[in-house]
Each structure stands twice: as C-alpha cells, then as structure tokens.
Design brief:
six-stranded parallel sheet, Rossmann fold, 2 domains, five-stranded parallel sheet, alpha/beta, 12 helices, about 35% helix
C-alpha cells in the first residue's frame, strides 16, 4: 500500500467540496497512509476537522507559483514530499503537468475519468444518453485504481467536533432556512424577483427564521429583503463560519452552485434548483435526495454542463416555470418530514 499520496483538485469551489467526503473516508480507512491535498488557498479552508493523516499543500498560481518559473518551483517542492502515488481529481492541463512530472519518475498516477464525450451527448436534443455518474463516485474510482479499498461513510465535517455558532443562530424553536439565491451563471440562477417572493411568503410565518447567503457584491440586493425574521449574511462571514451556520439549518435552498455542496459538507438537507444544468450531469450534492431537486426536465434541459451567461432559446423557462408557491411548499414539506 502507498504511504504518501498526493491528491490534486485545484478548483473550483463546488468541485473541491465534492472531494471532501471521499478524501475523509479513504483517509480514515487507511490511517497508515498520508494524504497531501494540493488545492488553492481559499479552497483549503473547507477542510475542517480533517483526519490527522490529511495535510494541505496550497497552490497559489497568482503569486507563489506564477508563470513557468513558478511551475518549476511547484514541481520541486512537490518532489521533496516523497510522494508514492498521485490521485488527479481534476484532469486539466495544470494537473497534467504535475501528473507527467511524477510519471517520468515512475510514480503511479490515477486520473479522474470525466467522460467528456459522453457528457456532451446529454446536450443533444432528444438525447437518450444515460445519466452521468456522480462526481463523488468518480473520485472514489480514482483511489480504487491506486489500490485503496474503503466505504463512503462521510456524514459531515462537523461529525467529530461541533461547530462554534454565532449567537444569532443559537438554538430556538424557530425553523431555520438558508437561501442562496445566486449562482455563477445567469442560466443557473432562479429569477431574482421570484426568489424575493419566496422569501416574502416564507417570512409571513414567524415560525421560520430565514438566512440569506451570497457574496459581498450581492448583499445590497438582499438587504432589500430584510425583515425581523429575514437576516442577510452575504459578505459578512468567512467560509468556515458559513459552513458552521449551514450545519444549524433545517433546510438550505440553493441553485446548482457551490452552496449546495457546502451545505452537503455540513450535513444539511438541500432543496436544489436546476436550470441549464440538471442532476443528470453528475453534480448532485453529496448525500442529497434527488427528490429534493427541483428540475422540470424540459426537452431543452440540460443545455450546458457547467452553466453559461445566456439561455440558448432566450426564455429560461426551465427556471421561470418553477413557481414561488411550489418552492415554499417544498421547503415546508422537507422540514416537516
């Protein structure tokens, strides 16, 4: 069995989050092996309460490892770690450079199979292409190729140590609902005026406390939705603190975005909303029930694997046809169950 494994996943936030359940599970199953995770500094902060045999190697391409000289510096430093095998969970040009470096030294390398051609078949009109394998399972296969046997037993990054919660989120009788209305791409984002209606309707019931997540630039929009039981968290907390807050929620509402995956790491149920992408693309949150994925599965869905700025047909009916009433009903149903 390999004694020191290099695991590569450099970006993006949601994709790195999907690696955690696998990394934590395999590390716990093989305490005699050390796992070094190469990822961006910001993403490294997600690895909360990680197993003691997991360490982080922060790869900052903008400063420390910038340009060709930076790449050589990165490879030299990785070589000094005495790596026995490489698990490439990214499969892009930057990770291929690292893969090739170790292959030339006779080090075994396993690379995630993204099945790019099969994914593209999903986008064809009237396609009968099969549903894509979830990426968490693809990551499991990479470790299996390197000889690691283990079960996916991850439940939460807070399973071994309870999170420290801010005072405003402490225990009370109210049901706590998180809502992350934004996504990186327009055609993955539920119309903002409709989401505002969701918040307004839900807030009419004082049995609910609603917490709005987003970035600093999105906070001004969300501030307009504030009420005594509607709280704007956007731009106020570090990612570690947001994960802690998510762990205290009864339900998280999210697009097909990083927040779905972050809430999954916190062990929280997610009501996910799908537009240009669908769960068939393989990016459903870890441990989430597909029954809680609001996806209309229109003939034009999916039209993209990762998202884009415009609806190709110009109507975005995949999201417009999901009513605020349905979302509110689904939230209440999930909490009741």
């Amino acid at each position: 069995m390999k004694k020191h494994l290099l695991v590569i996943r450099l970006s993006a936030l949601g994709d790195v989050a999907m690696t955690l359940p696998v990394i934590y599970s395999v590390a716990q199953a093989h305490p005699d092996c050390h796992f070094t995770i190469a990822t961006r500094p910001f993403f490294a902060r997600m690895f909360i309460n990680r197993p003691s045999n997991v360490s982080l190697f922060e790869v900052d391409y903008k400063q420390t490892y910038k340009g060709l000289s930076g790449t050589f510096k990165l490879l030299r430093q990785l070589a000094s770690l005495k790596i026995d095998a490489v698990a490439d969970l990214h499969n892009v040009s930057r990770s291929w450079t690292i893969d090739g470096f170790f292959k030339l030294r006779g080090i075994p390398v396993a690379i995630v199979n993204k099945e790019r051609m099969a994914r593209q078949q999903l986008l064809k009109k009237n396609s009968s292409a099969p549903k894509q394998k979830n990426y968490v399972l693809r990551y499991v296969e990479v470790f299996q190729k390197l000889g690691f046997s283990f079960s996916l037993n991850f439940k939460s990054i807070f399973e071994s140590a309870s999170p420290i919660l801010p005072e405003f989120i402490k225990e009370n009788e109210c049901k706590k609902v998180g809502i992350a209305p934004f996504a990186r791409y327009t055609n993955k984002t539920y119309p903002i005026e409709k989401m505002q209606e969701v918040v307004a309707r839900l807030s009419e019931d004082k049995a609910y406390e609603i917490y709005l997540f987003g970035g600093k630039n999105e906070a001004p929009i969300l501030k307009k939705w504030e009420k005594p039981n509607v709280h704007v968290l956007a731009g106020q907390f570090k990612i570690e603190d947001e994960l802690a807050i998510m762990s205290a929620l009864d339900v998280m509402v999210s697009m097909d975005s990083a927040n779905m995956h972050l809430a999954s790491l916190a062990g929280t149920k997610v009501l996910s909303m799908w537009g240009s992408t669908t769960p068939a693309c393989g990016f459903m949150g870890y441990g989430q029930d597909e029954e809680n994925a609001l996806c209309l599965n229109l003939p034009c869905q999916p039209c993209t694997i990762a998202g884009s700025e415009k609806c190709q047909l110009g109507h975005l009916q995949c999201l417009h046809q999901i009513s605020p009433t349905l979302i509110v009903q689904k939230i209440k149903q999930m909490i009741k169950n």
